[in-house]
Amino acid sequence: MKLAYWMYAGPAHIGTLRIASSFSKVHAIMHAPLGDDYYNVMRSMLERKRDFTPVTASVVDRHVLARGSQEKVIQNITRKDKEEKPDLVILTPTCTSSILQEDLQNFVNRASQDTKADILLADVNHYRVNEFQAADRTLEQVIKFYIEKAEKNKVLSSQKTEYPSVNIIGPCNLTFHGQHDVAELKHLLTDLGITVNTILPEGSSVDVIKDLPKAWFNVVPYREVGLLTAEYLQKAFNMPFIDTPPIGVLETANFIRQIQKILSEQGVLKDFEEYIDIQTRFISQSAWFSRSIDCQNLLGKTAVVFGDATHASALTKILSEEMGIKVLVSGTYCKHQQDWFRTQVADHCQEVLITDDHTLVADMIARLEPSAIFGTQMERHIGKRLNIPCGVISAPVHIQNFPLSYRPFMGYEGSNQIADLIYNSFTLGMEDHLLEIFGGHDTKDIETTTLSNEIDWDSAASNELKRIPGFVRGKIKRNVEKFAKTNNLNTITLDVMLACKEDGNV
Amino acid sequence: MQTKQEISNVNSIKFECETGNYHTFCPISCVAWLYQKIEDSFFLVIGTKTCGYFLQNALGVMIFAEPRYAMAELEEADISAHLNDYMELKRLCSIIKKDRNPSVIFWIGTCTTEIIKMDLEGIAPKLEAELGIPIIVARANGLDYAFTQGEDTVLAALAQSFGLKTFNQEGIKETSSSNLILFGSVPNSVVYELTKELEAFDINVKGWLPAKRYTEFPILNEKDFVCGVNPYLSRTATTLMRRRKCQLIGAPFPIGPDGTRAWIEKICSVFNKSPYGLEEKENKVWKNLQNYTDLLKGKSIFFMGDNLLEISLARFLIRCGMVVFEIGIPYLDKRYQGAELSLLEKTCEKMGVFLPIIVEKPDNYNQVDRIKDLEPDLVITGMAHANPLEARGINTKWSVEFTFSQIHGFTNAKNILELITKPLQRQQTNNVFVSNLVNATS
Fold this sequence. Notes:
The complex is a heterodimer of chains A (about 500) and B (about 450). Chain A is an alpha/beta fold. Chain A has helices spanning about 10-20, 40-45, 60-65, 70-85, 95-100, 105-110, 130-150, 180-190, 225-235, 250-265, 275-285, 285-290, 310-320, 340-345, 360-370, 375-385, 410-425, 430-440, 460-465, 470-485, 495-500, and strands spanning about 1-5, 25-30, 55-60, 90-95, 120, 165-170, 195-200, 215-220, 240, 300-305, 325-330, 350-355, 370-375, 390, 455, 490. In chain A, strands 12-11-10-13-14 form a 5-stranded parallel beta sheet, sandwiched between helices. In chain A, strands 3-2-4-5 form a 4-stranded parallel beta sheet, sandwiched between helices. A 4-stranded parallel beta sheet of chain A has the order 7-6-8-9, with helices on both faces. The radius of gyration of chain A is 28 Å and the shape is globular. With about 450 residues, chain B is an alpha/beta fold. Chain B has helices at about 5-10, 30-35, 50-60, 75-80, 85-100, 110-115, 120-130, 150-160, 165-170, 190-200, 235-240, 255-270, 280-290, 290-295, 310-320, 340-350, 365-375, 385-390, 400-405, 415-440; strands at about 15, 40-45, 70-75, 105-110, 135-140, 180-185, 205-210, 225-230, 245-250, 300-305, 325-330, 355-360, 380, 395-400. In chain B, the strands form 3 sheets. Chain B has a 6-stranded parallel beta sheet with strand order 1-12-11-10-13-14, sandwiched between helices. In chain B, α10 (about 190-200) links the parallel β6 and β7 (about 205-210). The radius of gyration of chain B is 23 Å and the shape is globular. At the A-B interface, β1, α2, β3, α5 and α16 of A face α3, β3, α4, α5 and α6 of B.
C-alpha cells in the first residue's frame, strides 16, 4: 500500500477512454462499478464538449460480484451497437473488473457475432501501466487491428501519395493544448508543402486507418501517446517517424530539418533553411524577444521545471538555451520515459528528478527557492504556498488550461506563447528593481470599512463571519450591522445574524 | 414511524425501476464534506488509483488545502495477498497518527476491498487497540451505493459503534436531559439554525450525529428519539433503531419552508408541543421568496437522479408552482422516505398538478430520449450530461451543487431557488443577446 494524496497520471482505463472517445463513431463500454464513469464528467467539463461522451458503463454491482456478469456485458454491447451504430466498441476493463478475472475476451467474441460493429477488448494491465501508457497501447491496438483487417480484405492502401504527406499520431481528448497544437502543426506542414494524410485519433474515423501507409512518414508530437503506433508502422511498412516535439524555436528548427532529411531519403530534395531563418527572425517574435533589452533581467534567474516528458524537456531547453535562465532541476513524472528524458535535459539543467510523488517535488522546490516554477497545477499550488510564481506547462491541469483563444505550444506561434508565459511568470524587471531599492511593497493592512465602531461582534458571530467566503464577507458584515442598527442592537450574536438572514437581508 | 394511512398513500404514486445505467458520483466522495464537518477526523480511502483519481478531480481545489484525507493505494502485491493487509494498514495509520494526530480514523472501504474481501472490520479493532485511536470502518463502495449514500454508510458505522467501546466513553458526559438526537451532516450554521427552530418550541436537541468533533458526539441511550435531516440516511436510521434501540421520528425533511415546517410539526407532535406561530413563519418565508416563485410558476422540471435529494427538492418545487415530469433517484427507501412521499402527494393535490413518476435506478440513455420528447424547461443532472444537453437547447442545473450548498431550514430555501432560477434567468439574458445579434446583423 502507498499513502497518496495526489497523482500526476491517472489510472489505465482513462488512457483507453481518451483514445476511444477521440475517434468518431467509436464507443467504449467500461466494465466498472457505479461512479467509475467519471471520465465523462472530465471530458464534458474540461473540454466543454457539446456531444455526449461515447462511454457507458456495464455496471458491476453486488449481483455481478456474486454470479458474474453473465449476459450483461454482451447485452450492453449489442444494445449500444443498435442505439449508436458505432464502427467499433472497445470493452474497457477497470481496476475493479480486472481482479474479478471474468473472461471478458469471451464476451467480446460472443458479442461480435451479433453486432455490426467491431468489438475489441482493451489490452492493458491496470496495476502496471498508467493513463499515458494505456493510451499509447490502446491506440496501437486499434490501429494494428484495422491494418490487419484491411490486409485481409485487401483494401490496404500501400501506394504512397504523389506528393509528400504525413500522419500526425497521438493527439487525443484531454491533451494539454492539443487542438491548438494540431492546428499549428498543420499550418507548419502546409508551409513546408507537406499534406496531412491523417490525424489519429482526434476526430478521425477508424476507416482512415487503412490509408495510413499512404503517407511518407509519421509525426509523433507528444512522447506520451503514439510512439508504439509509430514503431509498429515503421516495422510493418518501413515508415520513418519523427518523435521530437516541435516546441521552442530551436526544437522546431530541429523538427523541420528532420523532415528535410526524411524527404531527401525518399528522393525529394528540399532546402528548408531559408524558411527556418525567416520564421525564426521575423515571424516568430521569441528569438528577437530573448535578445531584447527587457530579457536581460531574466539572465541568471533560476527556475524549476516539472511535468510530462514532452513538455518538461522542451521547456527546460527553451529556458536554458533560448532565454539564458538557469534551470536548477528538471523533472518528469513519466517514469517510463526517464531514459529519453535524461538524454534530452542532461546538458540543460543542474539536476534531473524522476518521481511521481508530489511531496518530493514540493520539498525540492522549497529547498531550492527558484525565481519561478514551470509545472503542472500541483506545482502551481506549491508555488502559491511558497509565494513563487508558476507557469503551467503540462497536464494534469484545470479547466483554465483549456483556453478558448488560440494557444498552441508547438511551432512558431507556440514559441511566442511560451515566451509570454515565461516572461509573465517572473517578476517584471523594473518592479524587481524597485522592490529591491525600497524594500518591498506597501504592506500596511487595509482596514475594512465599517459603518461605525459602535457595534460589537461576539466571538461566535465573528467566527461565523470568518467562515463566509471573502468576496461576500464585507457585504454580509455591512448588512448585518445595518440590520442591528435599525433594530437598536449593540452586539451582534449568532441570533442576530440568523434574524437578519430570516428577514431576507443577507 | 409511519402510519398505515401514509403507506396506502405511498402506493398511489407510480414507481418504476430501470436498468441502473446512470451517472453518479462514487460514494467515497462523502469524505469531501465529512472531513470538513468532523474537524478532528482523518479519512483513509483504501482503494486503487481509480478511486484516487476520482477524488482528486471531483474535489478540485480542496485537494491542495492539506486535506485530512488520503488514499491507501492498493498495489499489485496487495491484490495478490503478497503483502499482509494488517501490517500495511498499521504502517500507514502510524504515519497518519504521527503527522496529523487525529481523534478518529475512518477507513473507507471501496469496490476493491470488497472484491478481495479485505477484512477491514476484523483488522480495525486490533489496530485500534495498538495505536490507541478509534478506527471506524465504512464500506462506501460503488458496488452497493450511490453518491450521498456514502455519508449514510459512515454515519451508520458511527451509530453502531459510538459510545460502546471503553476508550470512547472517557471524557464524555451526559450533558443534556433531552433525548432528541438529529442525524445527518450539515454545515455548522445549519445545525445552529435547525436547533434554534426547535428550541423555539421548547424542544432541546441533545446532540447531532455527526457533531463538529468526534469527541463531542452525543451519547445514545435506548428509547432516545432520533430524526433525520437528509433523505439518504436510511441505513443510519435502521442502525439507530435496530442496534441502538432508538425511536425514529419519520418526518419529511427540512428542505424548503414547507418541508421545514412539516419536519418541525412532526417533532412537535412527538414531544406534545404546540407548533404555535409556525404557519405564519412559513408564510413569511414564502412571501420573501415570491420573486423566485413568480419566475418558476408553470415551468417544468426533470430530475435525472443522482443524489437522493430528488424527492424533497421536487416536492418543494411543486409547492413553488413548478410541474415535475420525472423524479429519477438512485435508490428509494419507501419506509424512511414515507412521510416525505406522502407530503409530495399532498402537495401535488394542493397545487392541482399530476403526481410525477418516480424512476428508481434510472437509465440515462432512455432519460435523454424522454427529455427530448417532453422538452422540460429545466433538467437537474450530472455534469456528464449538462453541456451536451445545453448544446441541444435544454436548460440544465448541475445536481451536485445541491449536495454542496446549504439547503436546509427556512432561511436556506432561497439558496435552492437561486440555484434553480439561475439557468432560467440566464436563458432570458441569452435570448436578449441572440435577438440583439440578429438585429445587429440584419
